[in-house]
Design brief:
about 190 residues; Ctag/Cox11 (Pfam 04442); 2 domains; four-stranded antiparallel beta sheet; 9 strands; about 35% strand; elongated; membrane; Cyt_c_oxidase_assmbl_CtaG; Cytochrome c oxidase assembly protein CtaG
Amino acid sequence: MTPISSRVRRLNRSTLGKLVVVAVMMFGFGYALVPMYRQICEVLGINVLTQKGDFVEAPVNSQIDKTRKIVVELDGNAQGPWRFRPTQRTIEVHPGELATVTYEVVNTQGRAVKAQAIPSYAPQAATPHFMKVECFCFREQTLQAHEARQMPVVFFIDPKLPREVKNITLSYTFFEIGGMTKTAAAPAGTVVK
């Protein structure tokens, strides 16, 4: 064996050893990041997932404008094989106050359908101030044959709503999308109603 090839082998072994040490250190550092992240977040009070103690008092929303009330009128339009309506026609809210209303839909067909709801607001000036936190309109809905469903809308009215607006109409049009949805085949010997 030549002196050059033995020197190259030693150099290769030395490089391999260094690479193994670096890989082990990187794995250890990656493994230690999770507890370090939790500790840093807890110390700084950000992104805390668990609360200490048994009872945590809900924060008071100082953004609620108690000096005025807005009447929100609810409306539902069905464009398809179902009944669609709000469970209540009106609700009074203070600007900034979180409110929940419910819409009910009943699929009157003997087949599953896919649907989507599109909201509209009146007057037009209210549109940028109507803030939905949760809404069935955010995603398409699949309704099984003869299924009835209660669907919530959680919202608040931005306190920056112009003072002259005292009534807002929230209207949804619920329509079928994607054509007919195939229903699952019934097992042999069952009666389909």
